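JOB MANIFEST
job_type = single_chain_structure
chain_count = 1
residues = 220
[input]
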Amino acid sequence: LSQIQLAKVQAEENTVTKLNALADVEQLYLEAKRVYDVDTVLYSKHVIGLQEYTTALNNYRVLKQKLQLQHQLLHQDTLDRAQQETQDQESYERAQATLKVMQEKVNQLVVRAPINGQLTSLDAEIGQTKTPGYALAQMDSLGGWKVRLDDVDEHYLNRVYTGQTGTFMLQNDSTTYTLKITQVFSAITNGRFMVDMKFVGKVPEGLRKGQTLQVTLALS
């Protein structure tokens, strides 16, 4: 992309150089034409000799040809620049598209968690290949907690439902904390099923992941 931009600047500088050359030749041509016109009148009146008149005529003709040549060069430069700009624009757009694809590929190499939190486990090593959807790691949200009852007897499955509340107290803390059921896992394993709960209101300070709580769940 930088090379294309640089080539465009150089082409513009080249055009400016040709315009300056045209202006210089045009100035010389106008002066030569003025001298030739004056000498033509003087020669017709036999004021000047043939040699002086011939010099003015030759100078006028040479500069006229140079002026025509400069106009042709500038015209060809205009055509070439128009064609080159079209090609450069196409190349620029292709390069931008390629750059975008490369940026997307680079971004895909960066693994981002869906939430902010603390990385508590990572299942990845250098050189490993992971398939899309593979759980690489576990992120714990620092702004919220979930309590899982993982040992509820299947006998109570029909009496446990979403929105039901439970309470518990921490050791050396007389405060009663309230939990609410957010999800009931109806799959039975060894006569037990699981329930997920979230805090309602105040969350105890110093709570740590993996800590065991004694939750009282009122079924009636």
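[summary]
The chain has a mean pLDDT of 88.
Residues 11 and 17 are 10 Å apart (CA to CA).
exit_status = 0
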